[in-house]
Design a protein that fits this description.
By secondary structure, this protein is mainly α. It is about 65% helix and about 0% strand. Helix 2 packs across helix 6, helix 6 (about 75-85) packs antiparallel against helix 7 and helix 7 runs antiparallel to helix 8. The N and C termini lie far apart (about 65 Å).
């Protein structure tokens, strides 16, 4: 499992528990890491809760752009769950692995991690082989001869484009996300209404 998903804090894991219900997809704790704590449902009815309003805005923001989805840890968890139903979660896991890879500053760690990513996602017959063309695969193999933080950029970019043009639209059109977005919209409206100043009474 991708290191990024395994590093989710407890609050994100609680959201993932909610996605199990609202998206109808089983997100096992082992898939998101063992630091789960108490996994409870998100309370949509907390009208005065700033967290409720923030989470609702987060969910609704996922349909605004693919970038917003990828920048949201809850969004990544939901999208990952959706991709698992299409047996294409390796694309997102590779993208996330590349994002973590770029943060490495140790040359030794960079080299070993690069080889691990290549073996897991890029090489032919890799356990989580991503759908890239032969030219990109060979370019990436060549890049590993002198490892830099950019050696996976082309492959990562093509994988991202594939997700954005193919999987992302289906995710937004899925009944599971539509239902979640509708509930988020209702929760956001209720939260806004509850925070509005009362109108003065006229006698």
């Amino acid at each position: 499992m991708c290191r990024t998903l395994a590093a989710f804090p407890t609050t994100c894991l609680e959201r993932a528990k909610e996605f199990k219900t609202r998206l109808g997809i089983f997100l096992h704790k082992s898939e998101l890491g063992s630091d789960s704590g108490s996994l409870g449902k998100f309370d949509w009815g907390s009208k005065h809760s700033k967290e409720s309003r923030s989470f609702s805005e987060d969910v609704l923001g996922w349909k605004e752009s693919f970038d917003l989805l990828l920048s949201s840890k809850n969004g990544v968890a939901a999208f990952h769950a959706f991709l698992k139903t299409e047996f294409s979660e390796e694309n997102l896991e590779f993208w996330l692995a590349c994002e973590e890879f770029k943060k490495i500053r140790s040359a030794a760690k960079l080299s070993s991690r690069a080889q691990r990513i290549f073996d897991e996602f890029i090489r032919s017959e890799a356990p989580k082989e991503v759908n890239i063309d032969h030219e990109t695969r060979e370019l990436t193999r060549t890049n590993l001869q002198v490892v830099t933080v950019t050696c996976f950029d082309v492959a990562q970019g093509k994988t991202r484009t594939l997700m954005e043009k193919d999987s992302y639209p289906r995710f937004l059109k899925s009944s599971a996300y539509q239902d979640l977005a509708a509930q988020a919209s209702a929760a956001a409206t209720a939260s806004t209404s509850s925070c509005s100043p009362a109108e003065p009474s006229h006698t």
